[in-house]
Design a protein that fits this description.
This protein has two domains: 62 residues, 2,3-Dihydroxybiphenyl 1,2-Dioxygenase, domain 1, CATH 3.10.180.10; 55 residues, 2,3-Dihydroxybiphenyl 1,2-Dioxygenase, domain 1. The chain is 19% helix and 38% strand. It has two helices and nine strands.
């Protein structure tokens, strides 16, 4: 029987490495590893773990272009919480902290109860139950 394939990590480029690290560890309870630095390439990164999957935040001075909002490719990250109340509570906590709520909590066509917020770089983050 073939070995089951799992996503190990997803990576995001940013120009605000420390800000994104704080966002994902504070609001989404990620566990941050040690910062990796490669001075020869001007590269820095953190792996932030969420259970079995990690988010790699990467920064390099020559990576400055952001893809347009409707570009083909990855669209959003989704974080699951334990209940509809938790979706509402986390959304309100983020709103009070000054983060943009892109879509208010609702039941989607595929049955999720979700809201959508923007991280400090404007990436869409779904909060789902």
């Amino acid at each position: 029987m073939p070995k089951r394939v799992q996503i190990a990590h997803v990576a995001l480029w940013t120009q605000h490495l420390e800000t994104l690290k704080t966002f994902y560890t504070t609001y989404f309870e990620g566990e941050c590893g040690t910062k990796y630095t490669n001075p020869a390439k001007g590269f820095e990164s953190y792996f932030i773990r969420f259970g079995a999957v990690a988010l790699e935040l990467m920064q390099r001075a020559d990576h400055t272009e952001k893809a347009p909002e409707n570009a083909t490719g990855f669209c959003h990250l989704a974080f699951g919480v334990e209940s509809r109340a938790a979706v509402c509570n986390l959304t309100e906590q983020l709103r009070r902290a000054g983060y943009a709520v892109k879509k208010e909590h609702r039941v989607t066509g595929d049955g999720y109860y979700e809201s959508v917020v923007a991280d400090p770089d404007g990436n869409q983050i779904e909060i789902v139950a």
